[in-house]
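Researcher: I've got a protein sequence and the SMILES for nicotinamide-adenine-dinucleotide. Could you write out the 3D structure of the bound complex as structure tokens? I'd like something to compare against our soaking experiments later this week.
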Amino acid sequence: MKVFVTGGAGFIGSHLCEALVARGHEVFAVDGFDDFLYPARDKRNTAEYLHGALPAEAFRLRDVNLDEADTLAELVRGADVVVHLAALAGVRPSIADPARYLRANVEGTTNVLEAMRRAGLSRLVFASSSSVYGVRPGDSAAFSEDDPCLEPASPYAASKRAGELLCSTYRDLYGIGTSALRFFTVYGPRQRPDMAIHKFTRAIAAGEPIAMFGDGSSRRDYTYIDDVVAGTVAAIERVEPEQLAIYNLGGDETVSLSELVAAIERATGERARTESRPPQPGDVPLTRADISRARRDLGYQPQTQLGDGLAAFWSWLSVRTEES
Ligand SMILES: NC(=O)c1ccc[n+]([C@@H]2O[C@H](COP(=O)([O-])OP(=O)(O)OC[C@H]3O[C@@H](n4cnc5c(N)ncnc54)[C@H](O)[C@@H]3O)[C@@H](O)[C@H]2O)c1
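Model: Sure. Here is the predicted complex with nicotinamide-adenine-dinucleotide in place.
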């Protein structure tokens, strides 16, 4: 298939492009090399790596921003499936600059959907987020895709829910079918440097203290990048026009912040020094994925245990630190 990917130079996008090419698909990716959340230089390095690693006839990546609506409409022509990953991610920075997030994530998603409408395309895979579930008590049952998700706890979460709703509107108006994938805290090589696992591992390795927000009891469902990519590829190969499906792509367990720090200590062989900070606005106490729908429809089954995934992340980070 010809797959058009937005956000191809990002963490998840770059792994996805590699996996799609390995499965024989042709990938045309775009990325705006955004410099807000983490350095554009990291994404340029990733793009250079991808161009070197993948055959030119199967992979192209161009510098295009989501606000370039006409360019997007031209470039998506002929694609079998569009995968929309480009966005500003991250909860806390979205509270500091909400308008910027809504421009990139809501207007940006509208531009992708409009580009598809203009090009007559009808299959989309959209990157949503576990954050749409909002604040749930720590002992809540696993989150189900059928929950109404009416109280997102940050502008980022609201922007992702808005993206899902826009996909629903474009399905009803124009028959564009969407699989919206709610990713649950993804980690692994090339993980964004603003994310907790990346920040903690870097600090622990450097003998620096880590800032722990809250009392360490908040819990997350961590998902290894290869598992998320496998679920996303399955969604790409199965998405149908006219249908709207939402899937949780999570790990298979939840881990407390204190347990995460202990697991990073084991992976790095170093002791952590922690500094307690109050919980941050927008942070949620729990994420826990019910993955039964993804298992049934996509054959999704996370394979990577946290310890193994952290070890893989640590070896990637060690090489990178030595090189820089
Ligand atoms: N990493 C996670 O744990 C996680 C969890 C839930 C949802 N998601 C979603 O998955 C997607 C990918 O996340 P990621 O962790 O790989 O983030 P990332 O920041 O590494 O990748 C996003 C890419 O989008 C690009 N981008 C941002 N704004 C753009 C714009 N206006 N025009 C063009 N390109 C733009 C960035 O340059 C970046 O390369 C995002 O939509 C994110 O919200 C990620």
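Model: The two ends are 37 Å apart (CA to CA). Residues 7, 9-13, 31-34, 37, 43, 65-66, 85-89, 104, 108, 127, 129, 183, 185-186, 192 surround nicotinamide-adenine-dinucleotide (CB under 6 Å).
Researcher: Great, I'll pass this along to the crystallography team.
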